Amino acid sequence: MECESVTAVVRRLKHNVEGDYTLRNIAMVGNILGLQRASAGHYYMSLHDEQCSIRAIFFRGRVGAMMDAVKEGDQVVVVGSLNVYEKGGSVSFIIERLFSQGIGTLQQQLEARKKALAAEGLFDEAHKKMLPRFPWRVGVLTSKTGAVLHDIHKIAAERNPYIDICLYPIPVQGEAAIPEIVQALHEAGNNERLDILILARGGGSLEDLWCFNDEQVVRAVFQTKVPIITAIGHETDTTLVDYAADVRAATPTHAAELAFPSITDIEMTIAQMMDVATKRIQVYIDDYMHKVERTLLSVRPEQYKTVLSLRQEQVEAQLRLMTQRLAYIYEQKQGQLETLMARLNGDNPARLAAKGYGQVCCRRQRVKRIAEVSVGDLLDIQLVDGQIQTVVKGVKPYDKGQ
């Protein structure tokens, strides 16, 4: 079997493609992705539909005013031919004419989703959290192999090497990346040890960045309890997560600058705060000393003596009033005490015995009525100077008429 060289195969492909008249002056409709303008004025882009895409070139000499209103994501109708680039072995579509059809399919989806999420309040400024002024730990959600992580580490080392970086590695492109991004956002967003989150990736086309327009990812960004900075793509790229984030950075480098305060700036801030505090304390001391001096100058000896004399008279008057009240209370209590003593003396058995009365007891119980004793009971009669023991010979009640 005879083998052909790569060059021979590519040249045969070029000959067949460019020699086929059916592949010339093709009218094709598609959406623009990855639109770039070279310094020479040429435009490079991909034209895609729901299933396929092809690289396209619009050379400066053909552009004219046709690209003035065209932007990333727009749907366009292009007329041109296929071309094979020998050195790279790639097929491109060379645009001769271009007609804008307005917003493309992806862009339409993006605008509709943006409008719906905005209506729910996910982009409202009222929900934005403030970035802490002096963070200690920063969570970074990005690819562990990309240049973004390197740039963030570089900025962190330059500005503040004392801040810890906690990496949450995630894929940053494709539909399969969505669940991993959401899971990482939930995990990092609920980590109370983190002070700030950075969600970042490098530049790319609308299709490359599409996972950051996914509704699940946008909601996960909105739900983070930790303040989050997003830096998706280049400065001109804006995804839906940028609207839901607390702060949107133009680039990953800018995000790192926002998250990592400079040690020099912190030292200057602390010095300024100490200076302001010192000045305020000094002003307070000066004001207080001036008040004391004014008070001392306003006091006159004559007025001071008058005030003391008046206060002395007031105190003496209060003492006299208190003395009178105490004397009145004493007399009142003395009378009450004498009344109680009289009542006690009237009931004193000794005083009654001195008058010829005796206290009769039977079985150590005071006898008040004859019904409480019987004939033959032994009675004790208590007199003033002793006790009489006697036996009941008889009991004679008084007549009721007596």
From TrEMBL:
NCBIfam families: xseA (TIGR00237). It comes from Megasphaera hutchinsoni. This is Exodeoxyribonuclease 7 large subunit. Its main location: cytoplasm. One of its GO terms (biological process) is DNA catabolic process. It catalyses: Exonucleolytic cleavage in either 5'- to 3'- or 3'- to 5'-direction to yield nucleoside 5'-phosphates. It is found in: Cytoplasm. Pfam families: Exonuc_VII_L, tRNA_anti_2. Its EC number is 3.1.11.6. GO terms for molecular function: exodeoxyribonuclease VII activity; nucleic acid binding. The keyword Nuclease applies. Residues 122-321 form the Exonuclease VII large subunit C-terminal domain. Bidirectionally degrades single-stranded DNA into large acid-insoluble oligonucleotides, which are then degraded further into small acid-soluble oligonucleotides. GO terms for cellular component: cytoplasm; exodeoxyribonuclease VII complex. Keywords: Cytoplasm, Exonuclease, Hydrolase, Nuclease. The gene is xseA. The keyword Hydrolase applies. Belongs to the XseA family. HAMAP family: Exonuc_7_L. Heterooligomer composed of large and small subunits. Residues 5-97 form the OB-fold nucleic acid binding domain.
